[in-house]
Amino acid sequence: MAVKIQLRGDTKANWLLANPVISEREMVLETDTGKYKIGDGVKEYADLSYHGIDGKPSRITDDGFWEIYNPSTDEYVKTSHKAVPTDVQVAVKTNNATTYILTFTYASGSFDTPNLRGQDGATYDDTSIRDALTALQNQINGLVSGNVSVAIESFNEIIAFLASVEDTQTLQGIIAGLNQSITNVQQAIPTKISQLQNDDHTVKDADYVHTDNNYSNEEKTKNAESVRFKDITVATTLTNLPVENYSIKVTLSAASALSFASTPAEGWECMIDIKNTGSSDITQALPNATGWQCDEDSITIAAGKIASISVRYVHGVYVVLSRGN
């Protein structure tokens, strides 16, 4: 919307009769002579000099000060009066996920804006907005429904509005349009939290339950892998061990060749705990053939004791770490 700036103006005689003190940097106009003066906040009107005489008006310098034309030297003289106010400052007071407030500071004080970010989904409640719109719509309906008491109460509130109505418009048509606009706004207002879109695109509802149906296949795989630590595979041999679980518990009374039933995914690992249930020590061989890597050839498992083997599949190689007893 365009902004109109209008100077104070009066005839020369009236200015001299009132003879007020003109505020600093305020420009006032003599409507009958076309001349103007700029106040300094101290002198009365009669004591101020005219500006822009001899057909050359005052002008503003690049740094925002007034320059006055001096006809005796045919030059402009820079004054100490600022033409552009610099006493208004704006600063961010609060800026976080739910609140954005600015502070405006000027010569006579300061004020804070309302929360410009609005409310997030967790606290959003549109009841007051809907109630206010409903009350306004009922008030407008009262003007055309024959309810005289409501219409009289509302009359003074719409006088200013009627003053701007053009002859080509009808009151009934204007009110009908307002009613429709209000209805459109009411329909557009969210009625439940799930209709809101928050900054992080999540539903802000403490009672919301994220079911398995909301996960992608990749997320389901990751979720399944994260709970494998509690699942244990039980076996009586080290040969053709399954790769589904992280933890494998094996009981042996004699050595057996270590191998897996299938090739696991890159980065897979498992922990094999071997208990010797026999009456004599077991010398368990560890694989070092192609596709395997181990720093030892074997481990010894004493009778009735437990040894551990850690296996990790990386770069297409089974890396074996052992701990005997």
TrEMBL record:
It comes from the Bacteria. Residues 5-42 form the Major tropism determinant N-terminal domain. This is Major tropism determinant N-terminal domain-containing protein. It comes from Parabacteroides hominis. The lineage of its organism: Bacteria, Pseudomonadati, Bacteroidota, Bacteroidia, Bacteroidales.
